[in-house]
Amino acid sequence: MKISDSNWFDVEEYLKTDDRAVLPLGSTEQHAYLSLSVDSILSEKVAADAAAPLGIPVFPAVPYGLTPYFMGFPGTVSLKLTTYASVVRDILDSLYATGFRRILIVNGHGGNSPVQPVTAEWMEAHDGARCRFHDWWRAPKTWEAVQQIDPVASHASWMENFPWTRLPGREMPTAQKPFVPFDRLRDRNAEGVRELIGDGNYGGVYQKPDEVTDRLWETAVAETRALLEGDWA
């Protein structure tokens, strides 16, 4: 169940028999012709689709993350690492205080990965707490599905292009964009990153048929659900 579709009575009743919850992490950053909220949209939707048959609460995606390298693109918002770590820790503390003990973090933005040690620190400080950090798009089965479809896949390319991340009336380029190697991005500031990648796509075709990306999505949902159902002992 999505927390946004629930009231506190619903959650209290749920906690009588289960203590699992899902916390999606997203970001607000450029994604070329796609929504600035791609990472939040995808992390929350894959979490909700995975948890729905299990009745596990899914909290709203945290809409801001760590993305200083995209600050050359208007609309991008980036938090400092210390701020973000504190936000995630405060959320986990709140979940624990109200009765949740097993938390699956579904992360939708690679730049958020440095906050992962917060989960280890949090578990050490809270008896009986468990927390799993899941980068949904690069989990083993999902990433294998990406590679089988098209190994030229990257930020703002076809692998993030779904009906729920597109914007009405925006046409996509039809040509495949040459891939920009990640090692050329690591030593540049935000202005240099924008100069290097142009429209924001790191490389690859911008869109594939929905029946292709539907298969990818089904794999991602199943892999995420398996983490919720798996052994937490």
UniProtKB/TrEMBL annotation:
Its cofactor is Zn(2+). GO terms for molecular function: hydrolase activity, acting on carbon-nitrogen (but not peptide) bonds, in linear amides; metal ion binding. Gene3D superfamilies: Creatininase (3.40.50.10310). The keyword Protein biosynthesis does not apply. The keyword Metal-binding applies. Keywords: Hydrolase, Metal-binding, Zinc. It holds the Pfam family Creatininase. Belongs to the creatininase superfamily. This is Creatininase. It comes from Puniceibacterium antarcticum.
